[in-house]
């Protein structure tokens, strides 16, 4: 290779390496805002769950992440907008919880009890956040949309459980899709409409008893005493 050819080759090689580095650097930079935004959402959800919406400020969120309030406002215009994003993330996490495999050798009624136990644990952990949906009209509108998203996914999980229960002759239901939808949407929206900010344990006990009675009535459970086992453990 001639000297000139060698210089051209080296120049091209260096240029390609530089482009490669710049490309990876741009990818890394473009990813950082998304990561920071997600950190703000997760921190906000944690604080809303601990303190409630009204008692959480953007300053609280910024302090938790050791960042400035200005950085929070770079990604979100208001606390309400952060709450909306946190609600979407909360719904996604809730769906992940209810889609945990329950095992093929487990009876339908045990699957239902395990599913409700998982949901109760998740709701209890984030109770203040649940209650926050009723604190102002904006949150109420956000709630309706998010709850429908969760209900859609929960219906998909419950239908095969009820179908299995009918085959096992544990449940008696002739219109499974509509019955499951009625049960799921009705109870999810009822829970979030009435959820109080005080006496939470008493409310959970009352609501789960109500839920149990409704499930037994709609699906005509053969052994009603088995419904509700382990929900509050």
TrEMBL record:
Pfam families attached to this UniProt entry: TetR_N
Gene Ontology terms for molecular function: DNA binding
Domain of life where this protein originates: Bacteria
Keyword field contains Calcium: no
Classification via SUPFAM superfamilies: Homeodomain-like
PANTHER family (alphabetical): ACREF/ENVCD OPERON REPRESSOR-RELATED, ACREF_ENVCD OPERON REPRESSOR-RELATED
Protein's recorded name: Nucleoid occlusion factor SlmA
């Amino acid at each position: 290779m001639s000297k000139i050819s060698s210089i051209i080759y080296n120049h091209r090689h260096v240029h390609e390496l530089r482009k490669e580095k710049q490309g990876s650097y741009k990818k890394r930079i473009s990813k950082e805002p998304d990561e920071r935004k997600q950190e703000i959402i997760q921190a906000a959800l944690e604080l809303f769950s601990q303190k409630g919406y009204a008692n959480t400020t953007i300053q609280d969120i910024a302090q938790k992440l050791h960042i400035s309030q200005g950085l929070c406002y770079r990604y979100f215009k208001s606390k309400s907008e952060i709450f909306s994003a946190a609600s979407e993330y909360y719904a996604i996490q809730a769906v992940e919880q209810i889609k945990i495999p329950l095992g093929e050798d487990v009876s339908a009624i045990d699957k239902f009890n395990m599913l409700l136990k998982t949901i109760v644990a998740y709701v209890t952990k984030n109770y203040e956040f649940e209650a926050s949906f009723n604190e102002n009209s904006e949150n109420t509108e956000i709630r309706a949309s998010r709850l429908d998203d969760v209900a859609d996914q929960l219906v998909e999980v419950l239908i095969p459980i009820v179908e299995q229960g009918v085959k096992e002759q544990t449940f008696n239901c002739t219109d499974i899709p509509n019955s499951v939808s009625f049960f799921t949407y009705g109870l999810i929206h009822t829970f979030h409409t009435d959820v109080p900010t005080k006496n939470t344990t008493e409310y959970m006990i009352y609501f789960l008893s109500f839920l149990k009675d409704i499930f037994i009535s709609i699906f005509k459970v053969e052994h009603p005493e088995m419904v509700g086992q382990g929900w509050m453990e």
